[in-house]
Amino acid sequence: MNELLPLIRAEGKDPARLAARIRGRRRDLASVEEGAQKIITRVRSEGDAALRQLTLELDHAEIGGRIRLDREEIDGARARVDARLLDAMRFSLNRIKKTQGQLLRRLSYSYVSDGFVVRTTARGLPSVGCYIPGGRAAYASTVLMTAGVARLAGVGRVVVCTPPSRDGAVDDAILAAASLCGVDEVYRVGGAQSIAALAYGTESVPRVSKIVGPGGLYASVAKRLVSRDVQIDFFAGPTEIVVVGDRTTDPRVAAWDLVGQAEHGQDSLCGLITWDPGLAEKVREEVARISSGIDREEFVKGALARGFAVVCRNSDSAAGIVNALAPEHLELMMDDPGAFSERVRNAGLVLSGKYAPCAASDYCIGTDHVIPTEGYAAVRSSLSVLDFVKLNWTVEGTKAGLKAVLPPLKLLAEAEGLPNHYRSAESRFRK
After folding, report:
1. How far is residue 388's CA from residue 406's CA, in Å, rounded to a whole number?
2. Are 381 and 361 within 8 A, CB to CB?
3. What letter would DSSP give residue 345?
4. Cross-strand pairs, 163
């Protein structure tokens, strides 16, 4: 019996209950809250001493008194990494800037409306802390997707926190990416303890205005806990991918995309939704074949064993399940992906067709790979320049423009029991 991508028959099942069942088979987030809160409390009371001790306890790394890395160590990483990797980072960063720049330029504008000039200007936030996951892998691309966008948006101070390796070092690829993005500070501390440091500050880590970035369960839950005191982006925990396919789907390609995301770790959510039972069996067979003896096999098989292959009645049923799940990444590998995507309301990033794989979006298409998980894609879009700016509005009025709005202003103010609002505006026309 195939233990990977357990088969689920959706016939007659309520999409919301099915989605809850699928998500319920993964680790309970509530069980992490107590531990994360203890870490936060400890950092708030003990500062740097807690960061050093927690890094030793949880990451098995000794960082001593050097929590913050020197500028020379950050910038020197450019020479220490492969030149081809540096070029790949530049390529990715340029794509990100091109995509996010389109949005940024549209945020500042002015228009004339019946005697009033309305202007809005996008201003970068004072400071942002970017959490960059580590441990199982070094996510240099996440530096580009967070710090790179922050710098483009004009954030005054851009900070990176990332877990060190067991020798206390930070991966050179992460440092090189930080240097390319113009990051101001890099701290070799991760997990919930780094989130607490960014939120409340320690002797070495000044607090920031906002915290962004993906992470494991503890870091993600910690972000949610500190959101009472500091702004965050959203819940961006372990990665998710859902592939939707039909009889035209290449099962080998679908299987590889599921395996590709599963290698992030056993908490990843990976699944297939189809109305073709034959495809479900073929993808499950391919996944079992591919994952045997593969790199990071333990992580891949652990995630896929918690995954799913849902067989539903038709494409309408599939769309209902997708919207109930609200997955981070949604790949549409079918005969007419465009028509199906019109029915998708809830997904962090929709990847349409065979040649828009999740892996490409993770690195170099130009879209951001920091995307809501755990169903938050139903109410929140992916990270963008919008997360790093605030809009300043300015209104310039004329005598004729104000006079024209006095009648509706009077009715609205009096209806709310605030007559002096109207009188304050009308006073300009009385001697």
Report:
1. 37
2. no
3. -
4. none
Residue 38: what residue type? K
Rounded to whole angstroms, what are the CA distances from 153 to 21, 96, 135, 258, 389? 40, 12, 29, 33, 6
226-235: list long-range contacts, CB under 8 Å, 24+ apart. Answer: 226/40, 226/195, 226/196, 226/199, 226/200, 229/199, 229/200, 230/198, 230/199, 230/200, 233/370, 233/383, 233/387, 234/372, 234/376, 234/380, 235/372, 235/373, 235/374, 235/376
Strands 7-9 and 308-311: parallel
CB-CB neighbours of 431 under 10 Å: 3
> Can you give the pTM of this predicted structure?
0.92
> Which CATH code of 3.40.50.150, 3.40.50.1980, 1.10.10.10, 3.40.30.10 fits the domain covering 47-232?
3.40.50.1980
For residue 108, what are its two tokens?
A: 């500042």
Secondary structure of the chain: what % helix, strand, coil (to 5)?
50, 15, 35
Domain 7-28+238-379 belongs in CATH node 3.30.420.10: no
Chain segment 389-400, per-residue pLDDT in tens? 999 999 999 999
pLDDT, one tens digit per residue, over 346-396 is 999 999 999 999 999 999 999 999 999 999 999 999 999 999 999 999 999
Structure tokens at 345: 């309301």
Give yes or no on whether 7-28+238-379 and 47-232 have one common fold: yes
Contact (CB, 8 A) for 217 and 133: no
- Grouping H, G, I as helix, E, B as strand and the rest as coil, residue 89 is helix
Across-strand partners of 105?
Answer: none
Distance CA 294, CA 286 (A): 13
- Distance CA(183)–CA(157), nearest Å, equals 8
Name the residue among 3, 4, 22, 6 with its Cα closest to residue 14.
Answer: 22
- Quick check: 302 and 264 in contact, CB under 8 A? no
27 pLDDT exceeds 60?
A: no
Dump the DSSP string for 246-258. -TTS-HHHHHHHH
Among 192, 239, 245, 196, CA closest to 220? 192
Q: Among all residues, which ones are annotated catalytic?
A: 328-329
Helix or strand run (H / E) with residue 392: strand 389-397
Domain ranges of the chain: 7-28+238-379, 47-232, 400-429
Q: E strand or H helix at 210, and its extent?
A: strand 210-212
